[in-house]
Task: inverse folding
């Protein structure tokens, strides 16, 4: 059983990464910052889990990458969502909404 919100993050990492890339390309650290900011500081994307998700999504063709320079002029790999990724994001959002609604209903129900 998850002991913290952070434990629940791993099951939703792909969804969060795709959403973070839905409107602009970002490097890995920027994706991590986006997750932390958009979850009001509740979640942090651990490097290992984040980069596994980025590689997994790239292998599926849902994101593409290119090398560039970060804001601090460091070499960084930038990721952007593909058309297939946009389709996957819409599907994953629907799946999450259904799951979330079902869980909310179960938790609000009486014995």
Result:
């Amino acid at each position: 059983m998850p002991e913290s919100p952070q434990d629940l993050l791993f099951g939703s990492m792909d969804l969060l990464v795709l959403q973070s890339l839905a409107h602009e390309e970002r490097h890995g650290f920027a994706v991590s910052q986006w997750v932390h900011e958009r979850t009001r500081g509740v979640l942090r994307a651990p490097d290992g889990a984040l980069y596994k998700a980025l590689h997994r999504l790239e292998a599926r063709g849902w994101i593409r990458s290119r090398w560039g320079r970060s804001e601090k002029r460091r070499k960084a790999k930038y990721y952007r969502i593909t058309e297939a990724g946009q389709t996957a994001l819409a599907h994953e959002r629907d799946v999450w909404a259904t799951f979330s609604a079902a869980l909310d209903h179960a938790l609000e129900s009486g014995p």
Q: What stands out?
A: The first strand starts at residue 26 and ends at 27.
